[in-house]
Amino acid sequence: IFTWDEWTYSGKKKVNPIHGYAIVGWDSRDREYRMLRAANLGVLHQLNGKLRGNRLAFVSSETLVKGRPTRIRYTMIRRSKKVINWIAEWSVNRGPWRMIAESRLVYS
Question: pTM above the 0.70 mark?
Fold first, then answer.
């Protein structure tokens, strides 16, 4: 379980603060990871994940965003015992994945 705080941008201007919660677990029946993610902007995603080496990637089902079919992908890359890079991407109309956010998580 973890929480996060980030901003959405319009160009270089901060426009919306995002505060969210996530629960990550292992589904032993389907043999994959699951993430349930909720944020203050009314967003709720259930994502399915796969672990490959030091990368744990979660992908959502397709949903409509502004009338266009969209999928979200969150990838966590373990850089060391205390550092994880977090990458958020989306694919619109089954197009290529495009990065929408990147963070570095550091544990004390």
Answer: yes
* Average confidence (pLDDT) over 6-23: 84
Taking Cα atoms as reference points, which of 33, 41, 108, 42 lies closest to residue 75? Answer: 33
CB neighbours of residue 59 within 10 Å: 19
How large a percentage of the chain has pLDDT more than 90?
54
Amino acid at 6: E
Contact assessment for residue 23 and residue 38, using Cβ atoms and an 8 Å cutoff? no
Q: What is the DSSP track for 50-78? A: EEETTEEEEEEPPEEETTEEEEEEEEEEE
| pLDDT confidence of residue 102 | 84
Handedness of CA 84, 52, 7, 14 (dihedral sign): positive
